[in-house]
Amino acid sequence: KIIFSDEAHFHLDGLVNRQNCRIWGSENPRVIVEKQMHPQRVIVWCGFWAGGIIGPFFFENAAGQAITVNG
């Protein structure tokens, strides 16, 4: 059996990570945007295989510590 899986971090403050999502527009791309050092976030994990989809599973930590998804 082969299972393909991935996890993604979603910040709950509404900002989009420009390294992961390229947005083309008429505004200055080098503008400085202030943001929190350690914003609240949720980690979403899911996988799929020939038998179907696994998840999604949501992981969050109120203490602001990093959470990893281990198999």
Would you mind describing this structure in some detail?
The chain crosses the membrane at residues 42-59. The structure is a single chain. This protein has 71 residues and is an all-beta fold. It has one domain (3-66). It is 0% helix and 35% strand. The chain contains no helices and 3 strands. A 3-stranded antiparallel beta sheet has the order 1-2-3, with no helix packed on it. The two termini are 15 Å apart. The mean pLDDT is 75.
Topology:
Layout (H helix, E strand, L loop, with lengths): L3 E8 L29 E9 L2 E8 L12
Antiparallel strand pairs: 1-2, 2-3
Specify the helix fraction band. Answer: under 10%
Question: Which shape, going by the Cα principal axes?
Answer: flat
State the helix count.
0
Spans of at least 5 consecutive residues with low confidence = none
Whole-angstrom Rg = 16 Å
Notable characteristics:
single chain, three-stranded antiparallel beta sheet, flat, 71 residues, mainly beta, 3 strands
Short description:
GO terms for molecular function: nucleic acid binding. With 71 residues, the protein is mainly beta. The chain has strands spanning 4-11, 41-49, 52-59.
